[in-house]
Amino acid sequence: TAASPQLPPALAPFELERYFAKHEFSAPYLLCSSDCEPIKMSEVLDGASDTMKDMWSDLTLAYTESRGHPLLLQEISGLYDGASSSRVITGVPQELIDLHMRALVPPFSRVVATYPGYQSLTEIAVHLQCRVDAWVPEEYPDGSVGFNVDHLEELMTQGEPPSLLVINFPHNPTGALPSLESFRRIIELCRKHDVFLFSDEMYRGLERSEDNRLPSAVEVYEKAVTLAGMSKVYGMPGARMGWLAFGESATLDSAFQRVCELKDYTTICSPGPSEVLTLAALEQRERLLSRCRKICEEGLTAISSLMAEHGDVFQWYTPPGSATAFPAILSPLSSTAFCERVLEGCGVLLLPGDAYLPTRAEVNTTAGAASPFGPNRARVAFGRTNAPEAAKVLGEWLHIAKANGSLC
To answer: Distances from the Cα of 287 to the Cαs of 47, 48, 207, 282, 405, in angstroms?
Structure first.
C-alpha cells in the first residue's frame, strides 16, 4: 500500500500571546507591553483634515477594497522612497506575516531569522517544514546586546542557500538596532546570495535618536518586503491595521499576487473605520510619532533609574530603539518564576524570556551563539504613560523582596 503523505506540524501555541491572554487584562500594571500608549480615537479625528472628517462622517459599514482604500495605499507608498501603491497591501500585521510566508517561502527550504522574536516570524516557516536557523544576538560586556553581521554571514554560507532572511529592527524584544554600515552589509549579503528579505519594521520610528533610523529595506533592496503598521509607533493597536510594501523585483510579482489571493481566505478586506482612522493618523504622523517618542523617553528615564537602583537584580542596558528592552535577570529563579513572583507581589506584569522560546526545538539556535538567548531575561517596556508609576511600585517591592529572600 502507498505510504500516507506526511502532514505538516501543527502550529505551536503562541507562547507570548497565551501569556498575555492570561494576564494582560487583569494585571494592575503592564510594564511589558510593546505598543505605545493607545491614543483616543477622538484625538486622531480632532487633528484630522476636513477631508478626513468628511470621510468619517459619511462612512458606511460596507465591504472595502481587498488591498485597501486607494487613498490609503497611496499614503502608505509615500512613506517609502521609490515605492509604488500598486505593490502595497493592507491587513492585520499578524495576518500579513502569515500570508507572506505562505506565498513566498517554499516548503522544506531554509530560512534564517533574527531570534528570539515575535513567534510567527519563525513559526510559520517551521509549519511549512522549513529548516529555520536563528541569528542570535551577541551579549557585550556592558550588558548591551546586538546582532553581529559576521555571524549572519556564517549562517548565510552554511548548508543550502536560504530562501529567505527575516529581520526585525528595531528588534523586539531587545531594542537592538544595527548601525547603517551593518545594515548595508545585511543588504549586500542578501544580494550576494540572491535571498529574499522580509523586514519587520513595526518599531521603526521609535529610535532613541532619529539620526540612527535605518532606511526601510524596501527602499534599498529590490527583493525586500517591508512590514509596518499602526500598532506600535502610532499607538493604534486597536485599529488592527498594517501593510506590506513589496520591492520592485519582478521575482516578487507572483508572491504579491499570491498574498492578495490568500487574503480572500482570511479577512478579505479591512474594516472601513480602521482605514479612515489610519489615513487620518498618517496625515498627522509626525505629531503622533512625537507623542509616542515623548512617552517612551519619560518611561525609559524611570525604568533606567529603577534598574540602576536594583543592579543586583537586573543587568540593564539602554536599548537604542523600540519601546522594549530585554535585561538579564540575576536572580536564581527562572524568568517565568521571577515574573510570576513579581506579579503576585506587586501587580506589575513583566514578560518572561521563556515566552520567546517555544518548547519545540525546530528553530536552530547554535550557529553563531554558545547557547539559546533569552531564558534568563525578561521584557520590560516603557511606552505606556503609567510606566513611571509601575517602575516605582516594582522598585518598592524589590526592596522588600530582597530583604525577605523572595527572589531566591
So the answer is: 9, 11, 16, 9, 46
